Amino acid sequence: MECLKFVVGTFLLLLSTPARCDEDGLFWIGVGIADCTGPAAGIGLVVRRLQEEFGGIYHQENVILSGTHTHSGPAGFLQYLLFQITSLGFSEETYNANVDGIVNSIRAAHGNLQPGNVYYNEGELLEANVNRSPISYLNNPPEERVQYEYDVDKILQLLKFQSLAGDPLAMFTWFPVHATSMNNTNKLLSGDNKGVASMIVEAAFNPGALPGKGSFVAGFAASNLGDVSPNIKGPRCIDTGEPCDPVTSACGGTVGNCIAFGPGDNMEESTWIIGERQANKAMELFEDVANLRLLTGTVKYVHQFVDMTNVVVERRDIFGHMRQGRTCKPAMGYSFAAGTTDGPGMFDFTQGETDTNPFWDFVADFIQDPTPEQVACHAPKPILLDTGEIGWPYLWQPEIVDTQIGLIGDLAIAAVPGEFTTMSGRRLRNDMTQVLESHGAENPTVVIAGLSNTYSDYITTYEEYQASDVVQRYEAGSTIYGPHTLQAYLNQYVYILESVLSGATVPPGPTPPDLLDKMLIIPPVLFDTAPGGTDFGDCTVPPPATVNRGDVIRVDFITGHPRNNVRHGDTFLAVERLLDTGEWERIAVDANWETNRFTVRTLQGATMECLKFVVGTFLLVSTPARCDEDGLFRIGVGIADCTGPAAGIGLMGYANPSQTGAGIHMRQFARTFIICDDPGECLVFVIADMGMMDTAVKTGVVRRLQEEFGGIYHQENVILSGTHTHSGTAGFLQYLLFQITNLGFSEETYNANVDGIVNSIRAAHGNLQPGHVYYNEGELLEANVNRSPISYLNNPPEERAQYEYDVDKILQLLKFQSLAGDPLAMFTWFPVHATSMNNTNKLLSGDNKGVASMIVEAAFNPGALPGKGSFVAGFAASNLGDVSPNIKGPRCIDTGEPCDPVTSACGGTVGNCIAFGPGDNMEESTWIIGERQANKALELFEDTANLRLLTGMVKYVHQFVDMTNVVVERRDIFGHMREGRTCKPAMGYSFAAGTTDGPGMFDFTQGETDSNPFWNFVTDLIQDPTPEQVACHAPKPILLDTGENGALCHMAGFAFQAMEETEVRVQKKSTEELSDQDTRNTRGSGSRSLLLGPHPINRTSFVTRIGWPYLWQPEIVDTQIGLIGDLAIAAVPGEFTTMSGRRLRNDMTQVLESHGAENPTVVIAGLSNTYSDYITTYEEYQASDLVQRYEAGSTIYGPHTLQAYLNQYVYLLESVLSGATVPPGPTPPDLLDEMLTFIPPVLFDTAPGGTDFGDCTVPPPATVNRGDVIRVDFITGHPRNNVRHGDTFLAVERLLDTGEWERIAVDANWETKYEWENTNFFLGESVAHITWHVPADATPGTYKIRHFGEQKDIFKAITSFEGECPQFQVV
């Protein structure tokens, strides 16, 4: 039996296979994990211990030990003096802890050896590493650099271990990034980003297990990380904020001020993010069955010790001549002392330093004056420490190193004894790959396992080592065997690989020294005492009696020194929870991310132990379902294209008339789940990439469903919800106010939306099958902020004190799974506006919610184009009324200062106050916020420990409600009950200010409650609100009396009429004076189009009629609840603010509890069925210190709106749970026959002379690189001629080896843009601009870009066309 063992940090991979294998990929495999609380130890004692226990199975040649390179593990375990200096010597405790942990890990793996398979996969991981010495990398030959897209390797390599029964056993990955996310101010032991990645994956596969206690093992190993940093924001001068000097990594000559920053706001957050990104990519590759490659063949290994101090090599100089060189005795250069931007040095050295320094020359010469031969050998590196010639009191750095390769079939693991830089690693991979290929390997794969067996510092290329323009940096200064180090290693690894593949014997090489008996030891712990009046273990600072989820608890104990016992497999702390049985369950220990333990030395010689515990989402533990309820439902999911016209129609959301659609960035989709219980009751939920839902849309959908399916789906059991994207086409709502900025109703948009929703429901109905539904929830940070915090503060302090944040941070998720256990869908709710794309955008987009759906669906539907896979991921809106994705907050774009917190203005102007997202532009911010929602959803989806099976019955209840005169009661500040009522709709002044996500166009400010004489005149001209209406809406000053008015189309009619009249006479009737006949006369029949020029209007009659030309805002709204067991989905017809949503959840939860719900859960589905603007709390509505803001100004039914909704939803829930009948309520109007539109139609299309539709007028370059952006132009027709549902306006295709073309991207992909430009309005000429951002992982080859469209001739006939540009090469 041939065995190969690989240990990375605390993880072991053990494989064995018969010496002769019939290539079936069956191995004996075992995996293990054990506590070692520190980085990898020397291999010698580990092998000795293994041979004592297991005989000759494990030995020097087949055991690989590798460190993750965490910089937060205890030091003192290496036997060479230089690595002991800063830890004050050798630490026997650290050394023994490491060896014990590694041996225990191998023992565990040996104990569970079993037949199984090993698979390989790899994939590109972006935003997780950067080159920290790019100026050095540029010294490599240009012809070599051009072969690579990045200056660091972005490929994560993975091995998947699976039992013979198909059970997952382990994953081991290699990815080049330093474990330096925790910087040099950290004093707590940590696995850094590699440890986080392991923890995340192991938690996913070992639900409920504490860290290190589960059976599934996930190892995240180092690769060629020498010049690679996790601090992806790069280095900045902390004193000025400016970039550091790129050569010296200094700020004004000082390296200490030049610090590189990770992606988070602090080192812990950055550690988590980089670790999580590695974990997510690894899990993606682990589940990517289409690309996992079964490893077959035999296990082999080869090892040799090499004296690196005088290896002769040959290299080709710049003239092509072969030159001989040799390696040197170890020495450290000046640049070594500068440190890196991850951790600067302590003295006055700078990166890139090659000139000597008189003072440090003296210091260096005092320690050891290097010989002329040593100086010449290391040139051009000036020697700071001549470590190879000192030798006192024992060796300072290694001279003899391990070189080793392990083979699993065609996969070679090169265990290298140090830190290869990016290009050094690439050269090693290339050389070894050529050897594998020469021996007939079909899938030659090389993995570089860095920091293995021996540590000999850095290995740079010859070119990086040179000091051209003073660029020899830290890595070269730390290349201890001189400029020819890399070539010596390349020759050595080629030699041992050739030898093992050809069966040649490799001599063991010189024996390295065993220096353990010579070590200088750090001081011991002398004794521990407890302060007077206390004893060890006393809790001196207890926790609060009550804490909220998300709080941070810190308690103090009297303790002894932790060096007294490393407590392997045990813990210094435990957080435990009392179970109903009276037993205590341990839920967190010192190995958990959410706990910290540190000690502070006191003067008496005693220690105070501090324990910090974060109460996080892991406390959201669900009660198991009752045994008599198996949670089996019939479930179906579906997705369909609901994209509206791609151009020529305004976008819905910002109310900006200039924001007219001009193409597609992302297609918009409707996503549906249907769930039916055993009696046959079904609930339909649709989340569509639309601004909101509308009564007319739901009516049209239900009508179509009943025509097709009969009575299965109806008004009561169908919920339609919008994501609230502000980049979808407008004109689909039937109420006039929402049509004004779009120039009226758009039948094209309406039909596209209804068609897409119906198709989505049809698809879900078609795949109904038995399955289960699970619920989970978790906290998502850095994805939303309150955009009206001053308004939120108007809520009672005692209510606000119950919550940690001024927005909800919980993402709620439903997981749909087939009876066979296959994932079918996820649907989530999270409160954040889909306003990452701002009001300058003119391309259709699903915004951050659409991005989240795209990311998740791509992960579960590998290879499928957007909208074409079977797995569906819906990201729905919740109580997002005052919640923004622009988490950097609002700033004055003219000064950079914060906006006025009350008015959201800058010098009185709202237009200069803009809120910014986390990215450098709106597209980047959209992706980031979407990705964060997607990542949290994926985490919850896989969190089997906390997923709760939904059981029980499917129920639903629906009622239409007239919201214009609902009587409510509320308690005043004196405790007295006061009666109030809702009002007819009206919009306040603050509404016109817009928000910091999209400011208004006029001179209104947020928080405005004082009236304005000019706008009072304008308002009164449209409709003077009655005294009753003014009193009802107080303290909101009414800008648009939409519920009583007889208004012109945003004064468009007034503008036309003013051309002809110099005097306007206004006559008004009160509401009471209008007869039914008056009202009927204001309604026309049929859809009317008012397009060009002034229209004669009888102003006297025009302004007197209520609701002219039809209702401006809804009076009757949908209220609806869907129930799946104890989970209630409240479909609300508008945008509830944070606190409004909390009150609704609380009230509904109390109702569920009163009816015996074991796990009462309330989901708020915002913007559902009808859109009635905003719903604030009574307190937010009030104008204390001028804080009534946009949301309150847009609360159209007055200050008691929320209470009316709370009463209504409590009534509905009580009724459905008790079996009471709920009457349908008043029927809302169907206004589709009365719609007005000023939207000009498409008259005709023509192609410019000498061209035809589909002609490619701007072709792509002949050759492009991965990562490039390509833009091509086509002669086209108007995209309104056909929305092309389920199809595309563009296609990027790749030529296959078979001669067929594979479609790899369409207009629904994030990396493409379809932009339409009307180049000649009068002749109907237009151009399609198609952009493709070539993915960084695009397969090299031949590509082409195609365009599809329709053109309308002067006789209104529409004809399809297509075209394609010349082919091009992606390299």
Automatic annotation (TrEMBL):
<protein>
    <recommendedName>
        <fullName>Neutral ceramidase</fullName>
        <ecNumber>3.5.1.23</ecNumber>
    </recommendedName>
</protein>
<dbReference type="GO" id="GO:0046514">
    <property type="term" value="P:ceramide catabolic process"/>
</dbReference>
<dbReference type="GO" id="GO:0016020">
    <property type="term" value="C:membrane"/>
</dbReference>
<dbReference type="InterPro" id="IPR038445">
    <property type="entry name" value="NCDase_C_sf"/>
</dbReference>
<keyword id="KW-0862">Zinc</keyword>
<feature type="domain" description="Neutral/alkaline non-lysosomal ceramidase N-terminal">
    <location>
        <begin position="633"/>
        <end position="1045"/>
    </location>
</feature>
<dbReference type="GO" id="GO:0005576">
    <property type="term" value="C:extracellular region"/>
</dbReference>
<dbReference type="InterPro" id="IPR031329">
    <property type="entry name" value="NEUT/ALK_ceramidase_N"/>
</dbReference>
<feature type="binding site">
    <location>
        <position position="724"/>
    </location>
    <ligand>
        <name>Zn(2+)</name>
    </ligand>
</feature>
<dbReference type="GO" id="GO:0017040">
    <property type="term" value="F:N-acylsphingosine amidohydrolase activity"/>
</dbReference>
<keyword id="KW-0732">Signal</keyword>
<dbReference type="Pfam" id="PF17048">
    <property type="entry name" value="Ceramidse_alk_C"/>
</dbReference>
<keyword id="KW-0479">Metal-binding</keyword>
<dbReference type="Pfam" id="PF04734">
    <property type="entry name" value="Ceramidase_alk"/>
</dbReference>
<dbReference type="GO" id="GO:0042759">
    <property type="term" value="P:long-chain fatty acid biosynthetic process"/>
</dbReference>
<dbReference type="GO" id="GO:0046512">
    <property type="term" value="P:sphingosine biosynthetic process"/>
</dbReference>
<feature type="domain" description="Neutral/alkaline non-lysosomal ceramidase C-terminal">
    <location>
        <begin position="1216"/>
        <end position="1370"/>
    </location>
</feature>
<feature type="domain" description="Neutral/alkaline non-lysosomal ceramidase N-terminal">
    <location>
        <begin position="46"/>
        <end position="491"/>
    </location>
</feature>
<dbReference type="InterPro" id="IPR031331">
    <property type="entry name" value="NEUT/ALK_ceramidase_C"/>
</dbReference>
<dbReference type="InterPro" id="IPR006823">
    <property type="entry name" value="Ceramidase_alk"/>
</dbReference>
<dbReference type="GO" id="GO:0046872">
    <property type="term" value="F:metal ion binding"/>
</dbReference>
<feature type="domain" description="Neutral/alkaline non-lysosomal ceramidase N-terminal">
    <location>
        <begin position="1105"/>
        <end position="1207"/>
    </location>
</feature>
<feature type="binding site">
    <location>
        <position position="1135"/>
    </location>
    <ligand>
        <name>Zn(2+)</name>
    </ligand>
</feature>
<feature type="signal peptide">
    <location>
        <begin position="1"/>
        <end position="21"/>
    </location>
</feature>
<feature type="region of interest" description="Disordered">
    <location>
        <begin position="1066"/>
        <end position="1091"/>
    </location>
</feature>
<feature type="binding site">
    <location>
        <position position="1174"/>
    </location>
    <ligand>
        <name>Zn(2+)</name>
    </ligand>
</feature>
<comment type="similarity">
    <text>Belongs to the neutral ceramidase family.</text>
</comment>
<feature type="active site" description="Nucleophile">
    <location>
        <position position="884"/>
    </location>
</feature>
<feature type="domain" description="Neutral/alkaline non-lysosomal ceramidase C-terminal">
    <location>
        <begin position="503"/>
        <end position="596"/>
    </location>
</feature>
<feature type="binding site">
    <location>
        <position position="833"/>
    </location>
    <ligand>
        <name>Zn(2+)</name>
    </ligand>
</feature>
<keyword id="KW-0378">Hydrolase</keyword>
<feature type="compositionally biased region" description="Basic and acidic residues">
    <location>
        <begin position="1066"/>
        <end position="1081"/>
    </location>
</feature>
